[in-house]
Amino acid sequence: MDSSAWEFEAKYEQWLPGLAMMRDALIQPLSDADLGYDLGGSSLTWGQLIDDCAEIQRSYLDAFSSLDQGWAPPRSVLEHRTTVAEILENFHSLDGELELVLDSFTHDEWEAVILRPDGTKRSRRGQLEIYAQFMLIFLAKATVYSRAQNRDIPPSLQTFVG
Fold it and tell me: Average pLDDT over the chain, rounded to whole?
């Protein structure tokens, strides 16, 4: 076992809340009207980007338990959550569920293999690293939307994603 991977997984309770705090720091200042903000072209609205992140977080959460990851099909605008309060409530629920699931694994259970939608296989440990990368990618995208609205970027985000 790669010691750096083990250290990463063993200390998730130290970095996972930080990712959620950075996410929330970008979402909390938004108004419900801000969720309709569009960068133009074929980009998602701010709200769609954020709510799709929650759906992807759900897919990672489910995969840790079922060992089979699936992606939710694209949703129409009408299927997305429409208020900041709904979005944050959903995220906080997912965060709590994820923490409970991750806390339930014994040392050996981290080696269980998850089948990903593209046919690749990753241990739960590897999947957790991919999840962290996904969250950082989301935060980078979210800072683009924030900057486009001339919003301040929290210092923690400037440190991690620029």
Answer: 87
**Nearest residue to 64 (alpha-carbon basis) of 127, 139, 132:** 127
The model's pLDDT over 30-49, given as tens digits with 9 standing for 90+, comes to 999 999 999 999 888 999 99
Q: What is the CATH number of the domain that holds 81?
A: 1.20.120.450
CB-based burial, 108-135: b 16+ in 10 Å, e otherwise? eebeeebebeeeeebbbbbbbbbbeebb
- Dmax over CA atoms of the chain, in Å, equals 48
9: containing domain: 3-161
Task: Identify the helix (H) or strand (E) that includes residue 103.
Answer: helix 84-103
Tally the domains of the chain: 1
Q: What is residue 156's predicted lDDT score, i.e. its pLDDT?
A: 77
SS3 (DSSP) at 123? strand
Name the DSSP letter for residue 77: G
91 and 24 Cβ atoms separated by less than 8 Å: yes
